[in-house]
Write a structure and sequence with these properties.
mainly alpha, hpI Integrase, Chain A, 3-stranded antiparallel beta sheet
């Protein structure tokens, strides 16, 4: 470890670049950087982290895909017709709140506040609590869903046994295909929500708070 230098790391980066994208290399470097930071700060094995003086490959340009009005209506209709019992409600909630898929599928009923019209997320990707407003049709749909909730589980969208959330990946992909929509994944629903919020006049700060972005850079994109 003491023999690691910025030059030796740069040589390895050049080797890794053969057949690997910048995103993959940056993930490798993030792991290495964390290990070296522990060696410096906790164990005092090194005086400094040599990776700090290495130029990392630029981040790739990330795709940004969101639904047009027509695509949204076609997708929602396909979800209504799905044999998956909760797909339509999950997609409506995703479009209305901008929540991530696992944030929604992991919901338990105590997190849903019908009186205040809010969902309280205790565990999120960035480790911070977040409150999602639910209003209008999404709130009505959730109230309808609650009226027929299962008594054997606390999950809002339970799977067959009630021990785990429902698996919707295949059902969602099938709905996207039936709707005739190309190049679209579940996470793109968050992009759609951000676009709707921006078009309705919300500020970047407001959109970032709703979506749980730590920086405005992602929100701007």
């Amino acid at each position: 470890m003491s023999e690691l230098t910025p030059d030796s790391i740069s040589v390895k980066i050049a080797t890794l670049s053969e057949g690997r994208g910048n995103a993959t290399i940056r993930r490798y470097l993030a792991v290495l950087g964390h290990a070296l930071n522990v060696a410096v700060k906790q164990w005092q094995w090194l005086y400094e982290n040599p990776l700090r003086r290495v130029t990392k490959p630029p981040e790739p340009r990330r795709r940004v895909r969101f639904l047009s009005d027509d695509e949204r209506e076609r997708l929602l209709q396909a979800c209504r017709e799905s044999r998956s019992p909760y797909l339509y409600a999950v997609v409506v909630l995703a479009l209305s709140t901008g929540a991530r898929k696992m944030e929604l599928l992991g919901l338990v009923w105590c997190q849903v506040d019908f009186i205040r019209g809010a969902i309280h997320l205790e565990e999120t990707k960035n480790g911070e609590r977040r409150v999602l407003p639910i209003t209008g049709y999404a709130l009505d749909l959730m109230q309808q869903h609650a009226s027929g909730r299962r008594v054997d589980t606390n999950l809002v969208f339970p799977g067959r046994t009630g021990l785990k959330p429902i698996y919707i990946r295949d059902a969602f992909e099938a709905a996207v295909q039936r709707a005739g929509i190309s190049d679209f994944c579940f996470h793109d629903l968050r992009h759609s929500t951000a676009s709707y919020l921006a078009m309705s006049g919300c500020s970047l700060d407001e959109i970032a708070e709703i979506l749980g972005h730590k920086t405005l850079e992602v929100t701007r994109r």
